[in-house]
Amino acid sequence: MRIFVITKRTLIIAAIVLAVVVTGIILLLSFSPGAAAVSSSTVVEEYEMEVLAGQKKEVPVYSVDRADQKIALTIDAAWEDDKTPFILETLERYDVKATFFLCGFWVEKYPENVKAIAAAGHELGNHTATHPHMNQLSKKQIKKELSDFEDMMVKLVGQKTTVFRPPYGEYNDTVITTVREMGYEVIQWDLDAFQT
Q1: What is the pLDDT, as a whole number, of residue 107?
Q2: Is there a domain that residue 136 lies in?
Q3: What does the pLDDT read at residue 35?
Q4: pTM for the structure as a whole
């Protein structure tokens, strides 16, 4: 008869290894290039019908199926600017364009960086004037946040933005419908560089 002694340390290591293996398998299966996909327009049309029927809530764009396997790189600029020159140099070195979602107070504090981003041909996005919790605002307050930001951008770089990202990723039906009524597409993210 064999007796196996399993220590607590061995059990913990085995659990960690099992979790890593299972996570790897799930990721491998979910990112399989052979997975079936329907066109984005079909998904959007079906979703819009469900929203109209009251079966779904309004949601922003998180990702778009693409046959050419390209990604959209987005950067939120709401706090410091110490990495901005490095980011711009790196993007230029690799000939990559990105969308920078800017906040009004950041635009006021770092106007030269905003001009450099625009001059490099990157897309500028609206991230509000003051970075509030949008899902706590009235329709009038939402419009003011976006309009105040837009006024700053037109004055500084002479262009309007067409995409919007809600601060903290927070939104509700009022936010989405109001922002879309103003002519913006609401963009979220589906992978964060700080996720572990």
Answers
A1: 95
A2: yes
A3: 39
A4: 0.69
